[in-house]
Design brief:
Protein name: Two component, sigma54 specific, transcriptional regulator, Fis family
Largest sheet: 5 strands, parallel
Structural class: alpha/beta
GO molecular function: ATP binding; sequence-specific DNA binding
InterPro entries: AAA+_ATPase, AAA_lid_NorR, CheY-like_superfamily, Homeodomain-like_sf, HTH_Fis, P-loop_NTPase, Sig_transdc_resp-reg_receiver, Sigma_54_int
Oligomer: single chain
Keywords: ATP-binding, DNA-binding, Nucleotide-binding, Phosphoprotein, Transcription, Transcription regulation
Number of strands: 16
Radius of gyration: 32 Å
Shape: extended
CATH topology of the largest domain: Rossmann fold
Distance between the termini: 79 Å
CATH architecture of the largest domain: 3-Layer(aba) Sandwich
Number of domains: 4
Pfam families: AAA_lid_14, HTH_8, Response_reg, Sigma54_activat
Length: 502
């Protein structure tokens, strides 16, 4: 059952309670001496402590035991008993963290019931802490998949801003993971144990959204049958995530501006404001500057929201992350017909890497889900990918039906570090950092190319290095791509750009 430490200076009392508790299946450690009991707390780490408040009739040693019991790891639930009961001593004990308070004389059944309630309380607290730890682990920003340069910048911004109270505006196309970043900000902040409330501002009509956000008084409008707390009040102490903020009406924009300025809300039909302590994280897939010019979004609200902005890159801006994401989505994917894990061919993976993904990561996840469900022999091939994707890349009909056993070696979907790493070591599959090309002296003064822009010069150097590496491997593009730490499709694309520019 439980480990119970019992402390009382009356030997008869200790013997009687010990017998009762052991009959209930508890492991009991009985003491009549204050110093021995304190030392035993560290040795036995009991779940329950039952202690007399006045062990020598003059000094409240029980309060010292209470404080010590609450300081051990994990802390024990303490039930204080005393023959010198008064409301003052009860309040003092409860203020110091006692679970409950019993006055002598008490019935053994009362003590037994009190211990059972304390154990249930401990179990609920432990389960709650476990779930919160699991939730935090799930939304650690290091769990966001991506090692490309643009994603490294996102990680850097999350790391810098997570534990602040600054308002955050997350920008990016649909499907780039804006809500995932908002959750990472919350669950890695000091507000992590308070509520996280997501709100889709485009999903509700204006009058209903106003009531949802700010609450209402009973009778303030037709259908308001009871008082209702708004989501801002529900999120008190935590974070509210306002997704698709650009779709909010001008009336609600005005009310939101006041919330951000005054940190208070007024329910619909109520004039008395309520103070709130809420961090606001907003997101949009629309250019708010254009909406400001059109007169559909308040400029002052934009500057209140855009204290710190985080730009989410599109998937086409981080193509090297596609194999990592594919590995992540396939990690626990089981074919429903065979019950076995699913793999993907190199040809299908190259096609995924070449596609532009207008729906971004969400579209990629859906494509993997579809292919894993439809594939035969637990192997995703080109024919299993969405037809619209295959057609958009101009694949011949034979390519979508051809069989291949060339299984792609996906990178392990490891989590990125919490701080920036050199890009060359962050490329999936890279065997070593890029080195200085042969014949180049790192300490030499660079030649000035006055006829080239920086972009053209870097492109020229990249192509020269690609061609040198390709020659080193005798024209074997697969080995070249593996050495460079890029996908085969990326290598083909870069080489084709060279041919087009020639």
């Amino acid at each position: 059952m439980a480990k119970v430490l019992l402390v009382d200076d009356e030997l008869t009392m200790v013997q009687m309670v010990t017998e009762m508790l052991r009959a209930e299946g508890h492991e009991v450690f009985p003491y009549t001496n204050f110093k021995d009991a304190v030392a035993a707390l560290e040795i036995h780490t009991p779940e329950i402590v039952v202690t007399d408040l006045y062990l020598d009739k003059t000094r409240a040693h029980g309060l010292e035991i209470l404080q010590k019991a609450r300081s051990i790891t994990p802390p024990a639930s303490v039930i204080v008993i005393t023959a010198f009961g008064s409301i003052e001593t009860a309040v003092e004990a409860m203020k110091n963290g006692a679970y409950d308070y019993l006055e002598k004389p008490f019935k053994l059944d009362e003590l037994n019931l009190c211990i059972q309630r304390a154990l249930s309380y401990n179990e609920a607290i432990s389960e709650n802490l476990y779930l919160k730890k699991q939730l935090k682990k799930k939304y650690q920003f290091s769990q966001i998949i991506g090692t490309a340069g643009p994603m490294q910048e996102v990680f850097k911004m999350i790391e810098r801003t997570a534990d602040t109270d600054s308002t955050i505006l997350i920008l990016g196309e649909s499907g780039t993971g804006k809500e995932l970043v908002a959750r990472a900000l919350h669950f890695n902040s000091k507000r992590q144990f308070a509520p996280f409330i997501p709100v889709n501002c485009s999903a509700l009509p204006e009058n209903l959204l106003e009531s949802e956000l700010f609450g209402h008084r009973k009778g303030s409008f037709t259908g308001a049958l009871t008082d209702k707390k708004g989501l801002f009040q529900e999120a008190d102490g935590g974070t509210i995530f306002l997704d698709e903020i650009g779709s909010m009406s001008s009336t609600l924009q005005s009310r939101l501006l006041r919330v951000l300025q005054e940190r208070e809300v007024r329910r619909v039909g109520e004039n008395v404001p309520t103070y709130i302590n809420v961090r606001v994280v907003a997101a949009t897939n629309e250019p708010l500057e254009k909406k400001i010019k059109d007169g559909t979004f308040r400029e002052d609200l934009y500057y209140r929201l855009n204290v710190i902005s985080i730009q989410m890159p599109s998937l086409r801006e981080r193509r090297d992350d596609i194999p990592l994401l594919a590995a992540h989505f396939l990690r626990n994917k089981i074919n429903p017909r065979s019950g076995q894990s699913v793999q993907i061919t190199r040809q299908a993976l190259d096609l995924l890497t070449t596609y532009d993904w207008p729906g971004n990561v969400r579209e990629l996840e859906n494509a993997i889900e579809r292919a894993a469900t439809l594939c035969e022999d637990n192997l995703i091939q080109i024919r299993d990918l969405p037809p619209s994707l295959v057609r958009s890349l101009g694949q011949p009909p034979s390519a979508s039906t051809a069989l291949s056993a060339d299984v792609a070696q996906l990178p392990q979907p490891t989590t990125p570090p919490t701080s920036l790493v050199p890009i060359q070591t962050a490329i999936p599959g890279a065997s070593a950092p890029l080195s200085v090309p042969n014949g180049t002296n790192p300490g030499a003064t660079p030649t000035l190319h006055a006829d080239l822009s920086l972009k053209d010069y870097l492109r020229e150097q990249e192509l020269a290095y690609l061609n040198r590496t390709l020659a080193l491997f005798g024209g074997d593009k697969e080995k070249t791509a593996l050495h460079l730490g890029i996908s085969l499709a990326t290598l083909y694309r870069k080489l084709s750009e060279d041919e087009r520019s020639a």
